[in-house]
Amino acid sequence: MIDENLEIIKTNPDPDARQEAAEAINKQFGKQVYNWWLTWTLWGIPTQPYVNGIEANVLPDGSQGVGLAYAGRHQVNQIWCDDGVCE
Predict the structure, then answer these.
(1) Residue 67 contacts by C-beta under 8 Å, 6 or more apart in sequence?
(2) How far apart are CA 51 and CA 53, in angstroms?
């Protein structure tokens, strides 16, 4: 189904036919919840031993933070340093 509609998009000069084929592909993706991974991201997290909360997100009072969410972004409001020293 997807291949046939991709062929229509690539070869049919009629804009309405191409749009209809693109919409059919979009609907199929919605039904099957496909992921089309084209690349990846390499992550690096430089830190110092006195910086806390980078990985585990344990807050100074011992409670659990929200964790590392949203594509590896850190919750910087939950990162803290020993004795308040962040040099």
Answers:
(1) 57, 75
(2) 7
Residues in the chain, pLDDT under 70: 34, 56-58, 65-75
Please say whether the beta carbons of 28 and 1 come within 8 A.
yes
pTM (predicted TM-score): 0.41
Amino acid type, 13: P
Residue with tokens 């020993």: 82
**pLDDT for position 47:** 79
User: Is 57 strand, coil or helix?
Assistant: coil
> Which pair of tokens denotes residue 58?
């344990």
Q: What's the CA gap between 87 and 59, in Å, rounded?
A: 19
The residues spanned by each domain of the chain are: 2-32, 41-87
